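Researcher: Going back to the complex we discussed earlier. I've cleaned up the inputs and rechecked each line, so this should be the final set. Can you rerun the prediction on the complete assembly and write out the structure?
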Amino acid sequence: MSSDVILVIVVGTALAFDFTNGFHDTANVVATSISTGAARPSVAIGLAALLNFVGAFISISVAATVAKDVVDAEVITPTIVFAGLIGAIAWNLITWSVGLPSSSSHALIGGVVGSAVAAVGFDAVIAEGLVGKVLIPAVVAPILALAAAGIAIGVVYRIVGRQRPGVVTRGFRFGQLISGGLLALAHGTNDAQKTMGVITLALIANGTLAAESDPPTWVIVASAAAIALGTYSGGWRIIRTTGTRIIKMDAAQGFSAQGAGAAVILASTNFGFPLSTTHVINGGVMGAGAGKRVSAVRWGVAGNIVVAWLLTLPAAAAIGALAYGFTAIFGSGALGPVLVTLMSLSLIAVIFTRRSRRGAPLPVS
Amino acid sequence: MSATIVESKELLQTVVASLVAGVGITVVFSVAIWGAARFADLSRGERPTAAAAAAGLAVLAGLVTLAGVAYGIVIVASK
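Model: Rerun complete. Updated structure for the full complex:
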């Protein structure tokens, strides 16, 4: 009975995390299309939410990585997964509060690793999986998107540079409906799968699923719905802050950035690499900007992303470990997770109330 | 060690696929736009044969772009 209560709390917390992931990622997915005039905000956000939902169904490779390749599922308990989620959510809120562009994907993995280490020790961590499937791709992917977008925009300007600007702009705006849709699809498939992976991990830990199981259909549907609802809800609040955050771009740059970002995310998803989708999208935007004029890019944003990248995994891990330690004080029953949930909800309410009055941007994932 | 080698191979494949798809799709689509722009210019200049060739190139490049996008999605979905 107690373990089932914990499991329900874990599933609810994971879906809430997924919702917030979509909520604060909307701008990253649609800002490029909107800022170049390729799509109206209502169209871009509605399409992004729909394609986020669809994208969650096209692969489970990333979910498998999160569930099986980062921590040892055989020694994990639902309480460990819960504490990891608390670590991720807390770090997201902290970074949102100070305006640091952190990755909720990295926070999620950091939180689960931290709580697993606190509960079981370093033996719970699958080092090869963490390094090979999370850390290295996390470094490579944004650089790859930057390079692909930079090369692409350089060639594009050579091809269409002497043509009438009106035709070229209209053409690339139309193209952005495809590239923007592909980016939303890619975002849905990589990010929703992280939540699927965490819920699957909790179900395996609880004995509800056999080890090595894939996510059940209800987990896939719930995760897809949560991220899509978050995407649809989040767009209206943060669209203004991200539209021209890194660079003011033309439609060709927007197409190049979205195409490169989508290509990197989809290729990574194919091999089960859980990425920070926003770092990849921002890499693409910077590449497309630098391909035209290096000084046009606000490199300070890139610096903030690097700082956030360095801090997120260890910080979320530390909070996840603390959350597990606090929960363990109350034994192995449901009391600890219930108390932590109530405390977290209170803290979230306070932070949201204070921060929303100041109109701060949300963190990225 | 073997797991690291496998992941290195997968990472390398990811790098190659990302560059080929990210650069390739964008470049092919820009060829479609070039064709459309040339078609508009040549039509105004009353050069119907050249205009038709430019339009054909635009349509072909557009179809290749769509095929590339569809192929990428199918690859990810089929794994």
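Model: Worth noting: The interface with chain A takes residues 3-4, 7-8, 10-11, 13-15, 17-19, 21-23, 25-27, 29-34, 36-38, 40-41, 65-66, 69, 72-73, 75-77, 79 of chain B (CB under 8 Å).
Researcher: Good, that matches what I expected from the previous run.
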